[in-house]
Write a structure and sequence with these properties.
Chain lengths: ~325, ~575
């Protein structure tokens, strides 16, 4: 909306035959405009802060691998139970049934869940972009084959195939990420294909072809940079999907295997204790909610920032 | 404000009898980059039966001005001053009052008839809607009235057309429907916002004839917004020139077009290419170099046939048996209306779409048999400039990268020599070196087109294919780009296939002209012969329909065109009451 007004109202080319040399007002590159719009999206900024806090706290508190964090308790030791194990100053998130520190467990679960989510996000984005770009650019038989492949992946019930693949990974976290990443790229592939289909007809691609630019260079240098908006937004939303998918899988027992924990497996493990020790359910649940909501809000902010047509500037 | 109001002759010039008047109108838009003053306090009257042309280049605020009369500006606009339509002050009306005003007192004719009509409703539905909303006629009566309106604007078989959808009509007929909708409630004033810009030149002449007879027969006032000085000369009684939100000059059409007072109006008029005056209009430098004959043709098309495949229907033959050539150093103008296949030929000459049959040979090599490395070598010798400068530059590339990209693709030189080459080209297209690091969206349309031309010349091609390179530009920008183009052609001596619908531009540049219609060549020959002494009826009609920016001459041309149409057994467009 604001764009058309600028077209109608902004300083147009040319006072008589004297074209103005360069706009005098401060000009912004495309990326700067996107950044400006993003920073104005209040929800996205709050979400960024929450997300950053979750990442920083989860990784610094109990540390990574052998590097210790500032939290003095670990996930393996069963401590003396204080009262019924509810939240105390000693154990702010409470203790589990055998006295383990639940704050440490939740932080560990958050780490694993985030690792899986971002891993799946990156892998599925790579696959989806590649397949979508190739299908959209070459069209014809290549397009048909790749899109039918996509259809096949889409029609298989996600949770069912993820469960089978999750079982086959035998507790290896990286294999689990690969398996999930190989399943959730479909929507991005379709989006990128649509975007490429329209971009390949644009004059600047025509100009590049007329010069003799190779298809690979056209895709990588000319087309993909122009789809970065779609890709970024979709990648963010895939991360949210991956978090929930992992939670679902772990809840069903097909995801992260003991002794490691994820947010989903924590909930699954203590689902029976919900009535007697509700904190065992609430803490990991709240973390999932916080992460998924933040990621969705960030995705929303990015989409608004990249696509001015969707912003509603009500003033 | 520097308004030179030289229309002091008329005695009846009180705002009292004006059907549309703007008094001290200012419009400011609030955007995310601060406030933009679109209109800065203008005064303008339109009286019954009068055509007032509001002229200006893009961004001058002419459309914003006219939109205030309908109260249709978006929410972030701040309006001050008074706009009166038939005695009502637009700013004081509530929503219901505004709805009554629109259609009843003031109606609008838009630029693009395809988007102004709703594609999923029939013509009849769209016409009767306005009649019923304004309580003029209902049901069967409204349908009869709608058919009557279509007959008035000269659409044959109006009853059948009522049941058709917009896509079943031609562009000219769609614009007639839009005009029929505009006059359906008998408004006192019609705002026509670039009503013919999207139309072919022969259709444009018909629509202008129709609009003219509206003012004569219905005494409707028209506020005509346009950038085309030829249209102004053809239509307007009075002219108001806008520049950056200010009215710089108003007066009768003869005063403004023939004796402009303001510096801007003078420059604007000087920039309009005149059909019939040939090359050298913008000074002696701007004269295309003479071609070098005798060598191998830069582009040689023989019996070219191009077809577009359609699913479930026979292929569409866009180009049918076309034969012509372009000599080295020669500019050949390819002229035709939309759908004539001229752009298809340009794309085929670039190897972007394949030929069905016939031969396309570029610099002596056949495009259809050249493959791989040799094809890439051949492409190196062809340059291309497209119509829309906004679409033909990659928005994510800084200008330096845009221009050096062909060098990178063909692995010519190293980073330093490429940079030098880009700087040389920027200088040649008269752009400052500072644009090297800028992005396309930071440049104006004319500057972008210069970049586009610089990119086309990077590899010093022997053949340049230019597809309507100036039709998206403002007239003053077009003049400077054309001037630069001719001096570049003189310097680099490339052959050029110049596709355009604008005969005046072709007249300025081309050595030879090829006229196309419906995929076939109608006439070809040296510029002087084709444009001065056309043999074919179609060329004659095309030439007669192109308006020139001089009211007296344009009136003669209009009468000559009507005579030509009569001699061809056709009638000119007018309102049938």
């Amino acid at each position: 909306m604001s764009d058309t007004q600028q077209n109608a109202a902004g300083p147009g080319p040319g006072a008589a035959d004297v074209e103005e040399l360069l706009p005098e007002a401060k000009s912004y590159s495309a990326n700067q405009i996107v950044l400006r719009r993003f920073l104005r999206h209040r929800g996205a900024i709050v979400a960024m802060v929450v997300m950053a806090a979750v990442i920083v706290v989860s990784f610094t508190s109990i540390g990574i691998g052998s590097i210790p964090g500032w939290w003095d308790k670990d996930i393996a030791t069963a401590y003396d139970k204080i009262g019924d194990g509810g939240p105390t100053w000693e154990h702010p998130f409470g203790q589990d049934t055998i006295g383990k520190d639940y704050f440490a467990l939740t932080m560990r679960g958050t780490q694993i869940s985030l690792y899986i989510a971002f891993g799946v996000g990156i892998i599925s984005t790579l696959i989806g972009t590649l397949i979508g770009a190739i299908a959209g650019y070459f069209r014809g038989i290549v397009d048909s084959l790749l899109m039918r492949l996509t259809d096949v992946v889409i029609i298989i019930p996600l949770l069912a195939i993820a469960a089978v693949l999750g079982r086959m990974t035998e507790g290896s976290l990286n294999l689990l990420i690969l398996a999930l990443g190989a399943l959730v790229w479909t929507s991005l592939a379709r989006l990128v294909r649509g975007e490429v289909l329209s971009l390949r007809e644009r004059d600047f691609v025509m100009a590049a072809r007329a010069v003799g630019t190779s298809p690979g260079r056209i895709i990588v240098r000319h087309i993909l940079p122009n789809t970065v908006g779609v890709i970024t937004v979709s990648a963010t939303l895939t991360i949210a999907t991956a978090i929930l998918l992992e939670t679902g899988l772990s809840f069903l027992g097909f995801g992260v295997q003991k002794p490691d924990v994820s947010l989903g497996s924590l909930i699954s493990e203590y689902q029976g204790a919900f009535l007697t020790r509700p904190w065992l359910f609430w803490w990991p649940g709240l973390m999932i909610l916080a992460i998924a909501l933040s990621v969705n809000f960030i995705g929303d902010g990015l989409r608004d920032a990249f696509d001015p047509r969707q912003t509603s500037t009500k003033e | 404000m520097t308004t030179l109001d030289i229309s002091t002759s008329g005695a009846t010039e009180t705002s009292g009898d004006a059907v549309l008047s703007f008094e001290g109108l200012s419009v400011t838009f609030k955007t995310q980059f601060g406030e933009v003053d679109a209109v800065k306090g203008i005064d303008l009257d339109v009286r019954p039966g009068e055509v007032v042309a509001l002229v200006g280049e893009s961004g001058s605020g002419k459309s914003v001005t006219s939109t205030t009369a309908l109260g249709l500006l978006p929410g972030n606009a701040r309006i001050s001053g008074t706009v009166r339509v038939g005695g009502k002050v637009v700013g004081s009306l509530d929503k219901a009052g505004l709805r009554k005003l629109r259609g009843n007192d003031v109606a609008m004719v838009f630029q693009e008839p395809m988007t102004a009509l709703n594609p999923v409703l029939t013509i009849g539905d769209q016409l009767t809607e306005g009649l019923q909303l304004h309580g003029i006629a209902y049901g069967k009566e409204a349908e009869a009235r709608a058919a009557e309106l279509l007959r008035m604007v000269g659409i044959p078989e109006p009853e059948r057309r009522l049941k058709q959808y917009p896509h079943e009509l031609s562009g000219g007929q769609r614009q007639r429907v839009v005009i029929a909708m505009a006059i359906s409630c008998d408004p006192t004033v019609i705002i026509a916002d670039e009503p013919t810009t999207a139309l072919d030149v022969t259709v444009q002449a018909e629509i202008l004839d129709l609009l003219r007879s509206l003012t004569e027969k219905l005494d409707t006032a028209i506020l005509l917004i346009t950038h085309n000085m030829g249209v102004v000369a053809d239509m307007a009684d009075r002219v108001a020139v806008m520049l950056k939100g200010d009215l710089v000059e108003t007066g009768t059409v003869d005063q403004v077009l023939n004796h402009p007072r303001h510096e801007y109006t003078k420059r604007l008029l000087a920039a309009v290419p005149h059909l019939g005056e040939g090359p050298g209009q913008f000074g002696d430098v701007a004269r295309p170099a003479e071609p070098v004959a005798g060598e191998v043709s830069a582009l040689d098309l023989r019996n070219l046939v191009i077809e577009y495949h359609r699913i479930g229907r026979p292929a569409f033959r866009a180009v049918d048996d076309v034969t012509f050539h372009v000599d080295p150093g020669e500019i050949v103008g390819l002229v035709g209306e939309s759908g004539s296949g001229k752009s298809t030929i340009a794309k085929c000459a670039l190897g972007l779409i394949p030929a069905k049959s016939g031969s396309v040979s570029i610099l002596g090599q056949d495009f259809r048999t050249t493959r791989g490395k040799r094809l890439k070598e051949l492409r190196k010798r062809i340059g291309v400039v497209f119509q829309d400068p906004a679409a033909s530059l990659n928005p994510r590339f800084p200008i330096g990268d845009v221009i050096s990209e062909p060098l990178v693709v063909h692995q010519v030189g190293d980073a330093r020599s490429r940079r030098e080459k880009v700087m040389e080209l920027l200088d040649a297209v008269e752009l400052p070196p500072a644009v090297y690091n800028r992005y396309p969206h930071e440049l104006s349309g004319g500057q972008r087109q210069r970049v586009s031309i610089a990119r086309a010349l990077t590899l010093e091609p022997e053949l340049l294919v230019a597809d309507e390179p100036t039709s998206a530009l403002d007239v003053s920008v077009q003049a400077s780009v054309l001037k630069m183009f001719t001096s570049l052609q003189e310097r680099y001596r490339f052959a050029c296939l110049f596709v355009s619908h604008d005969l005046a531009v072709i007249d300025l540049l081309a050595h030879r002209v090829v006229v196309m219609q419906n995929g076939e060549i109608v006439e070809q020959g040296p510029r002087e012969d084709v444009l001065r002494d056309p043999r074919e009826d179609y060329t004659k009609r095309l030439l007669a329909a192109a308006p020139v920016p001089e009211p007296g001459e344009q009136r003669r041309r209009r009468e000559a065109r009507h005579a030509l149409l009569t001699s061809l057994g056709e009638e000119s467009a007018e309102l049938h009451l």
